[in-house]
UniProtKB/TrEMBL annotation:
Coiled coil: none annotated. Residues 1-61 form the MADS-box domain. Probable transcription factor involved in flower development. It is found in: Nucleus. Keywords: DNA-binding, Nucleus, Transcription, Transcription regulation. The keyword Transcription regulation applies. Residues 87-170 form the K-box domain. This is Uncharacterized protein. GO terms for cellular component: nucleus.
Length: 170
């Protein structure tokens, strides 16, 4: 007997969601591999987890070459219908957004301490300064939260003492 249909909705429990993601991701990667082997198809699969971690599979010569081939096929027809000297506004916007995403992803990896080798000394110093400023902001916010909690506790002690409760002095 087969399994019943699963209602497709977001899994609220974080642990169950992560387990399901891992199982389904592995199943999807397996299916992509099987499709490439059985049908001699060039398959590329890109998955980003909710945490932003990248998972990929490529059966061809490499992900970059497969994506380049995809872009030529997808946007080749668009370019063929337009005069060569007049690229469409949406394609230009796509290129700008693509560049922006690449820059943001590189920046995110750098902030996580990854892909630092291509950076020169000046860029590393800028990254260090940015991280120091971020750390100062985190510490400042943490200190403010602790001061707020301390003030709340002191108010509670004052209220309790005014109501006649005796506490051992802090």
């Amino acid at each position: 007997m087969g399994r019943g249909r699963v209602e497709l909705k977001r899994i609220e429990n974080k642990i169950n969601r992560q387990v399901t993601f891992a199982k389904r991701r592995n199943g999807l990667l397996k299916k992509a591999y099987e499709l490439s082997v059985l049908c001699d198809a060039e398959v590329a699969l890109i998955i980003f987890s909710s945490r932003g971690k990248l998972y990929e599979f490529c059966s061809g010569p490499g992900m970059a070459k497969t994506l380049e081939k995809y872009q030529k096929c997808s946007y080749g027809a668009l370019e063929a219908s337009q005069p060569v000297n007049e690229p469409t506004q949406s394609y230009q916007e796509y290129l700008k957004l693509k560049t922006r995403v690449e820059v943001l992803q590189r920046s995110q990896r750098n902030l996580l301490g990854e892909d630092l080798d291509p950076l020169n000394t000046k860029e590393l110093e800028q990254l260090e300064h940015q991280l120091e400023m971020s750390l100062k902001q985190v510490r400042s916010t943490k200190t403010q939260n602790m001061l707020d909690q301390l003030a709340d506790l002191q108010n509670k002690v004052c209220v309790s003492q005014n109501l006649g409760f005796n506490f051992i002095s802090l």
